[in-house]
Specification:
The protein is mostly helical. The protein folds into two domains: 62 residues, Homeodomain-like (Arc Repressor Mutant, subunit A, Orthogonal Bundle), CATH 1.10.10.60; 130 residues, Tetracycline Repressor, domain 2. The chain has ten helices and no strands. α6 packs parallel to α9, α6 crosses α10 and α8 packs across α9. The protein is elongated and about 65 Å long. The mean pLDDT is 90.
Length: 215
């Protein structure tokens, strides 16, 4: 794909650990691009090795087969979408609505990156063949955010701000309402304007919290 930088030249001699890691990351990035461009069936180890300037045997020495390389490339993309507990905690202002809006902005901004779009597109096109990439992305990237939001709702229930409810289901609904719709639009190239996004997030968070208020 056009956005992939050319491989960096390798000096003679044994590469350092940092150089070896950089080459591994470049291999996985190029592999993901080519799997997206050609599909899993049509992309080949030979094609990927040629684009990176590697010997085919070097690629096979690291990854036993094409499926192993594919999963490693997808896992690298998932790793880039994982939000640490510290980052999530920093979003918590103590105001539930503000914090939920901050979570929504973070997740959507992640999807709007090149890495985020590539990950969503490869999951959309290849998860029927590799259902484990869908579950891996959910468990590693999405579920921690849902659990964080459920914790916010738990706190609201405990303080009486929110009515008793299934907080895990409420958190899943939040992700679907506030984030899910935007993901589908972004993946097909229809990114929202900042004004459009802010208005939609503010409205949806307000609608959701209004349904959770004590009656």
């Amino acid at each position: 794909m056009s956005g992939t930088p050319p491989p960096a030249p390798i000096k003679a001699g044994r590469p350092t650990r940092a150089q070896a890691e950089a080459r591994r990351e470049q291999l996985l990035d190029v592999a993901l691009d080519l799997f997206l461009e050609h599909g899993f069936e049509q992309a080949t180890i030979e094609m990927i090795a040629a684009h990176v300037g590697m010997n085919r045997r070097t690629v096979y020495a690291r990854y036993a087969d094409k499926a192993t390389l594919f999963r490693a490339a997808v896992q690298r993309a998932i790793d880039r979408q994982v939000v640490s507990p510290e980052v999530l905690a920093d979003l918590d202002t103590g105001d539930l609505a503000q914090t939920l809006e901050a979570v929504a902005r973070l997740r959507v901004s992640q999807v709007m990156t090149r890495d985020g779009v590539r990950l969503q597109r490869i999951i959309n096109t290849e998860s029927y063949r590799f259902p484990d990439i869908l579950s891996s992305n959910y468990l590693q990237s999405t579920k921690p955010v849902i659990d964080f939001v459920a914790g916010l709702f738990d706190r609201g229930v405990a303080t009486g701000t929110l009515a008793p409810t299934d907080t895990a289901l409420a958190a899943q609904t939040f992700m679907s309402m506030v984030v899910g719709g935007w993901v589908r639009r972004i993946v097909i190239g229809r990114e929202p304007t900042p004004e459009e996004f802010d208005a939609r997030v503010h409205f949806t968070v307000g609608l959701l919290l209004n349904g959770l208020l004590p009656r």
